[in-house]
Predict the structure of Transcriptional regulator.
Amino acid sequence: MAGRPKLDDAPERLVRAAVGLLAEQGPSAIKARTVASASGLSTMVVYGHFGGIPELMRAVADHGFRELGAAFAQVPVTDDPTADLFAMALTCRRVAHENPHLYDLMFGLSTRATYRPLSDADLRLSGHSPAFQDAHVHITAACRRLVDSGRAERQEPEVIAAQLWSLVHGYVTLELAEHFGEFEDPVVQVMRPMGVNFSVGLGDKRERAEASHEAGARLYDSIVQGR
């Protein structure tokens, strides 16, 4: 009927509205009526497409992982996998800083009941979502190149990826919580040396690891400048 809005894009509109509310107001703003209002739709549309706020927030988390995967895809594959991995680590940090509340949601850090994973393990967020796996595959592929290069002791790339993911996620979480306020430049003073130490622990030479992390920082800067 003429004048009636099309609802084919309603799920995407609701997800983007929720992403915007998280960025602007935080998790307390996420209610069916506020998301509906921000998207120009009715609360019935929220329930009709998602069933409720927990299901909507699962879709929002998946949106965040797709955005993260797209950001990882912008990091070119070079002949230095350590540099590539550090550029991706810096990319993850940037994405987290752009919308900290969304990052919290993606990794299950929010304490609000509506954000808690659904009871069915197949529907949980981090680690179970195909969107997460699609983002994580960029890390795993770079770790495979790292092992193949001989700069890390022979082990499963998935294991290295999980360790690196834990390292980066831990740093980002602490930085977002303002635990590094005493440092003038926590990336240079904490994140990069930690990455170097991690590389050395995997079997790399310290001087080479330091050079690669410096190269990774330059690679990341070139990506940001080209955005």
Observations:
- DSSP finds ten helices and no strands in the chain.
- The chain has two domains: 1-51, 57-226.
- The domain at 57-226 is CATH 1.10.357.10 (Tetracycline Repressor; domain 2).
